[in-house]
User: Fold this.
Amino acid sequence: MEELVAVGVTEAVQAAVLIQVNLNIVWTLIAAFLVFFMQAGFAMVEAGFISAKSAGNVLMKNILDFSMGALAFWAVGYGIMFGAGNFMGASHFFVSPLVENAEWVFTFFVFQLVFAATAATIVSGAMAGRTKFVSYLIYSFVVTLIIYPVSGHWAWGDLLLDTNTPWLVELGYIDFAGSSVVHMVGGVLGLIGAIFLGPRLGKYRKDGTSQPIPGHNLPLAALGVFILWFGWYGFNSGSTTAGVPEIGYIALTTTLGAAAGTIGALITSWVTLKVPDIGMTLNGALAGLVAITAGCANIDPWAAVVIGAVGGVIVVLSVLFVDRVLKIDDPVGAFSVHGVCGIWGTLAAGIFANDLADGVTRLGQVGVQAIGILAILAWVVVTGVILFGLIKVTVGLRISKKEEILGIDIAEHEADCYPDFRKDFTKI
Amino acid sequence: MKRIETVIRPSKLHDLKTALSGLGIHGLTVFEAGGFGRQRGHKEMFRGNEYDVDLIPKLVVVLVTQDELVDKIIDKIISVCYTGEVGDGKIFVSTIDETVRIRTGERGEGAM
Assistant:
């Protein structure tokens, strides 16, 4: 009789374990599909914030950087980021069905691919309106092939194979869902691309002051921001990669961060620009989301509000600084939203963390965060400069002046997004 | 009184406005237009099929001024709008019989 009970208990435990395994796969894939939808968000934000004559090109960049990235990440990127190895991985190339624990490897691949593609697609906004299409394709392939996976391995390289001991993980670096691994990488690459390109024609007047080139469709931009916010629940809550109770808590901190970021940007624009600016407020929601991403699983709700609000404040100041002082033309504010707020969010994850790494003091944790940020920055800046530099001297990075005046949609794709509104005489 | 009507490339409007204010011209009217002369349009494609877009976006800038300013204004427009390539545009000058400011009822040069 006792034996029978014991057998029954074992079976029940096995069944429970199996249910949990399946639940983890289901939740991780639902989250991955949400994050995939963020591609639509980026496409709408970027199309809305750019001139009508460049909108089609931005849409092409968005669908192509995902598609180029999917092949590159499948072939090589995933193996570098999550394969066996400490400085960088070197297994699981071309993700084969023969590997151990294959169902999970596939699930985890899809989940990580949509993150890699998020980093890649951030760049298209910063380089909108003037980048040669073929050059952008090369960029998006290389970034997902090697640039993103190497620094990603340092912070997340033990997530698939727990025998890996990447150096940032060993230090106790906190970046739960990718403020630095994903967003800072994309934002900084965007800035480098924008510097190599130079500003759009007419962006700066002869005396050097900034000439606004207004986005052609704020409703599209707003739709994009809502889609991104929606997808971000998959980005952050999904980063548990397990159906566990924490996903509800992470959804809470994510919401608070985004809301506080929106309000922070609203107030900052209202005070500094004397206007509750629509574009800045939309950027503020994204800034709050980027900032909360690193620490979302490991902070108090009040800290989520602080982190998001500070993100909302600095995104406005950063957009103005990049535009007016640095005079770098970033049409959608990609560097300010993803780069600057990514750095802030990663530092904040150390400042406000509830659980510190073993044997690390609060100050030590912030130091570890700073080391991680600087290391990833160094890697991305060096490889980004080499990549964009090589593209510039070989195939060329920028379309001709004539093509730019005509519009990149017509010049590169022989297309017009609004052919029924032919009187689309953009300023430049 | 003369009416100066200039067809320009849309990208030149900002510089032209700045240059004309330098001459003391503080009012002008701009029409969005599409047209072609020697400069022809471009081809576009929709899902594999090409079509011609003949009308090129242009702006028509209209201003009315005293007779003695006409040559100065024309020189200024040419210096701003010249690129040397086909499509720089044209300037048409015509005589105006009367100008009336609606708000005050003033007529003639005082209404300009």
Notes: The domain at 2-413 of chain A is CATH 1.10.3430.10 (Ammonium transporter fold). Chain A has a mean pLDDT of 94.
